[in-house]
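> @MW can you paste both from yesterday?
MW: sure, first one:
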Amino acid sequence: MRRILLVAAFIALMTAVLTGGHVYLARRLVLQPELAPWLRDALLAVIAAGAALLLAQPLCDRFAPPAARRWLAWPASLWMGFGFYLVVATSATDLLGALLGAAAAAPGPAAAVTAARVQAASVVLVALLAGGVGLRAALRPPALRRIEVALSRWPRALDGFRIVQLSDLHIGPVLDRRFAAALVERCNALEPDLVVLTGDVVDGRVDHLADEVAPFAGLRARHGVWFVTGNHDYYSGVDPWVACLERLGLRALRNRRVVIGDGEASFDLAGVEDHHAHLVSDRHREDLDAALAGRDPSRAVVLLAHDPATFARAARAGVDLQLSGHTHGGQIWPFRYLVRLSTPWVAGLYRRGASQLYVSRGTGFWGPAMRVLAEAEVTEVVVRAALTPSSPPTTPADTTTPSAPPRR
C-alpha cells in the first residue's frame, strides 16, 4: 500500500507540474502578447499537444507496439527539452523584468503588449538555440574520457589496469540497437581488462527491447563484463532484464563481490542493487554489507553502484574506488544545480579519506534528446598503484574524443 501511495503521489505531482508549466507558457508566451487569432490558436494547439505527448508517453512505452513507441518517443523527447528551456528562459526574463520594473513606472497597455511580444520572441529564440545545440551534442558519439586513479592498496602487478565504464545507456525507443552496436565496437577497440555497466541499461520491458540490447553479447574484456542495476532497470522489470543480460554473457553483481585476478595480482569487484530498489521491489534493496561480507581487508575493492549516494557509506566501509552514474552530469544546463540538491557528487572524480568516487556523465541520455554542458562519455579508468597511502588522486584527464581510439 505504501508503494502504491508513493507511485500515486509521484504521478499526481508530475501531472501537476506538467500542466502548470504548460499553462504558464500559454499565458506568458501566447495570451499576454495578444497575437493574431490564427497564430494564437496555432501556438496554443502546439503547447497543448506538447503537454499531451509528455502525459501519453509513459503509457505508450508500456502498452504500445514498438513502432508506435518510437514515433511518439522522438517528438516527446524533443518537446521535453525544448519546453524545459522555454520555462527556464521565461522564468529568467520574468524575474529580470520584476527586478527592473521595481525601479520603473508601470508601463501603459500598449507598451506592456510590446514588451510581452519582445519577451516571447526572445524566449523562443533562446530555447531554439539551446535545444539545437543540445540535440546536436546528444546525437554525437559519446566522447572517450580517460582518467587515472592511484589506490594505496592496488597491487603493483596490476598497475595500469584498464576498466571501461558504460553508464546510463537507456536503450529504448530512442537509443536503439544501432547505438548499442556502436558502443560494443568502441569498447572492444580499447581492449580493456574489464568492462562495467553501472546501471540504467534499458528503458522499457524486456519483451519490447531484447533485440535492441542483443549486440552487448559481443562485448569483450580479459576479466569479463559486469553490471549492476539502476533505477530505470527496476522501472523496466529488473529480474527479467538481469536474466536477459546474463544470457548475453554479462554478469550481474547484486549485493555480492567476486575476485578479479589471481594471488597477489588480484582485487575485489563488488556491486550493489540500485540505491532506491526498495521503493520499487519487495524483494530487493541495496545491501553494501552483504556485498563486502567476508572480504580480505588487505585487498583493494572496486565497488559498482549506480547512485553516487552510496559513496557516503562506501567510504566508511573502506571501499577504495566506487564507479557510479545516475546523475548524467545534469545532462542539460542548468539542471545540474537541481541535481546537486540531492547529491554533492554530480560528475567527475571525488575523494573522501582514502576512498575515491568517479561519477560518469552517462553514455546515453534520458528524457530530452539533448545534452548541454554535460557531454556523454565512454570512460576508461586506468588504475595505478599509489606510491604511498597518502598519494593524492589523479584528476580527470579531460582528453576526450568522440571517435574510436586506435587499437593498442
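MW: second:
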Amino acid sequence: MNPATHTRYVHIVQVLLSPRIGGAETLVRSLAQEWEARGVRSTTIYLDDEPGTRGRVGRLKALRRGLRELSPDVVLAHSYLPALYARAAWGKRVPVHSVLHSASDDFADARPRIVEQLLRSRTASIVAVAQSQLDIYAGHFGSRVPTAVIPNGISTVFQPADVDRTRTRIITTLARVAVQKRPAFWNQVVNQAGPAFPELRFQWWGPLSGRTDLDEFVQDPQLVNGRFMGPTGDPAGLLQNTDILFHSSEREAHSITLLEAALAGVPVVYADSIDPPDGDPIWRFRYAADDPEDALRVLTLVSDGWAAARAEAVRYASTHRETYGMTRTADRYLAWIRDQK
C-alpha cells in the first residue's frame, strides 16, 4: 500500500514512558508493524530506560536529544506524561499528537490542567482510545484543539483454537501485577473458589510493576488453585489454552486484553464498572465491581454453560475481527495525521 495515500509523513516517532508491558505498549508495537508494511517508518522512544530512572530535567534533555537524532516528521505521545514531555521538548518543531490511554481522569487536579492549557499551542491534536476519555477532556478544555476517537486494534495472531473439551479447566488473567489491576481482589475470588471448585485452575500472567508491596499477593501461600505465572511473550498462544478470561481490573478505557480474548474466542468475565466495547451479547458476563462473591457467581455461571459461551465467543470473533483489526486502526491513525497537516 502506498503511504502517500494516507499521509505525507514518512517517519513517525512514538513516545512511551518506559519499556514495559501494557495496553499502550502493545498498541505502539502493533502500529509500528502495520506502518512499516506500508513503507512508513516508525521508531519508539522512552522517557525512562527503566521505570523511574530519570528525573524531570533528565527526561526532558534525553527526549530532546533523542528526537533531535531521529528527526521525525510527526510524534505520537502515548499517555499523560509522555505527551507532556514530548510537547514541551518538541512541539514547536513538528506536529505532536497526544494519545489518551488512562481509564481515569488525568486532569482531575488543577496542576495538570494548568500545564495542559500552557501546552495547547504545541498540541497538534488529542486522540482518545475511547469516547469517555474525550468527553472528560472536552469537559476540562473545550474543543479548541482537534480531537478524535481511535479505538485500539488487535493483531490477527489472536484466533480461536480448535478445542474438543466441553468443560472449563483454566481461568486466566492477563495483566501487569499493579494496583489498578487489583491483585488483592483476584486473590479473594481465587480463595473463595478453591473449596467449591477444586478442579479449576486460576492463572495470572503478567510482569510485576516494580512495587514491592504487591509481592505478598504473588507469594500468597493461601492460594490453593491459583498461581501468579509471571510475564508471557505469547499472549495469543496462552489464550488458545484458556477457557475463561477473568479481568480483575475495576477501570479500563478501551481494554486491549478484553478484545484480544474475545477475538481468540474466549468468554470474558469483567467488572460492571467497565463499559462494554460494543453492544454484542458476549459482553453480558459482568460482576459487581467490588464484590468478589458476585465475581465468583458470574464465573460459575460461565463455567457451567461454558460450551455455549465459547460458541458465542467464536461467533463474535468471526463477526468483529475486521472491526477491531489492527490494520483498520493503523489506517485511521495515518488518515488522522494526514488530515491535521
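> thanks! The first strand starts at residue 11 and ends at 16.
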